[in-house]
Design brief:
Length: 329
């Protein structure tokens, strides 16, 4: 081998050492395409490996919730020292398709799958001294669930000429449901652009409302597993009717105030008249009162100091008046 160049000798020797070394490449194979299964069914997460199984062989399955990093995985089961250990909340629902998994098959079987089982599953094989690979495979699982009953709502200026936004949302469903709005019953075809819906968000935008826009609207949430719906009634108000009603109410209030005012005025006049009578005594005449234009004679004035009790009870003011009035011929 002296004739070989130095660099060629080096790489040849390195290749021979690699081939006769005890450690081998660990290969783990899993499906490339994500898996999906309806809730309640069983699923098999396929995982196979290639390595020379020895005393230090170990297998681990772990789970990562959607949106979390791989480093936050939770162990489901692991096999080491020829013993199988089940851990985590899924322990009662998981088994290995081949136990012990020492013949290249590490497939995991999960029964009665639930929406919480959706996520990424890690199949990891460790077989010292075979450290020439990470020995890791990822399997993505989606548990299919029909949509839950959606909730409908409305907002906006729901009157003639205004606009309204109808909303529809389902709290559950995998894959994510698609929303479709329909109007129930017979109705004229809306003008182009006056009715726009978003299948992803579930919103329906209505513009340039008219009285014919009133009616019952249904939102249907659907995915591969089924559908559910909700309904709402849209009542478009007519502002002109409101103005007429306001005018009528105004007139009625005006009449009410007028009646109350007249009543109070009449009551005031009655009270005032009553007070006047009490103050002036009305038309009562005293017995000793003198008629207008009648004066006492000197004789009578001389005896004016005589008390009223000395006068004759039969003498009256009227008789005196008649006797003292001058005669005119």
């Amino acid at each position: 081998m002296a004739w070989l160049p130095g660099s060629l000798v080096f790489w040849t020797m390195l290749t021979l050492i690699y081939l006769i070394a005890p450690g081998c490449l660990v290969e783990v194979k899993v499906p490339i395409e994500p898996l999906s299964k309806p809730a309640g069914e069983a699923v098999e997460l396929t995982c196979s490996y290639y390595t020379s199984v020895g005393e230090n062989f170990a297998l681990k399955w772990s789970f990562v919730q959607p949106g979390n990093p791989i480093s936050s995985d939770e162990t489901i089961l692991y096999f080491t020292n020829k013993e199988l250990y089940l851990t985590g909340p899924q322990a009662k629902r998981v088994t290995l398709l081949q136990n012990p998994p020492t013949e290249g098959i590490a497939t995991l079987r999960l029964t009665d799958i639930q929406p919480s089982d959706t996520g990424t599953y890690l199949c990891q094989v460790n077989n010292p001294p075979d450290f020439h690979s990470n020995g890791l495979g990822l399997v993505n699982l989606t548990v299919l669930v029909p949509p839950t009953k959606p909730t409908c709502g409305q907002s906006g200026q729901i009157s003639v000429g205004g606009g309204a936004a109808l909303s529809c949302s389902s709290s559950g469903g995998a894959p994510r449901p698609v929303y479709t709005w329909v109007r129930l019953g017979s109705a004229p075809t809306p003008a182009p652009g006056s009715m726009v819906q978003d299948e992803i968000s579930g919103r329906l935008i209505l513009t340039n409302l008219s009285l014919s826009s009133s009616g019952v609207y249904r939102c249907v949430a659907a995915n591969q597993l089924g559908s559910a719906f909700c309904e709402l009634t849209l009542a478009v108000a007519d502002p002109s009717k409101g103005r007429v009603a306001g005018a009528v109410i105004g007139v009625l209030l005006g009449l009410l105030f007028l009646v109350v005012g007249v009543f109070c005025l009449l009551k005031f006049q009655k009270e005032r008249s009553k007070k006047s009578k009490e103050m002036y005594g009305g038309n009562d005449l005293r017995e000793d009162a003198k008629a207008p234009g009648v004066y006492d004679s000197p004789l009578q004035r001389g005896h004016s100091d005589v008390g009223l009790l000395e006068r004759s009870p039969s003498a009256s003011t009227v008789t005196t008046t008649k006797s003292k009035l001058p005669m005119v011929v």
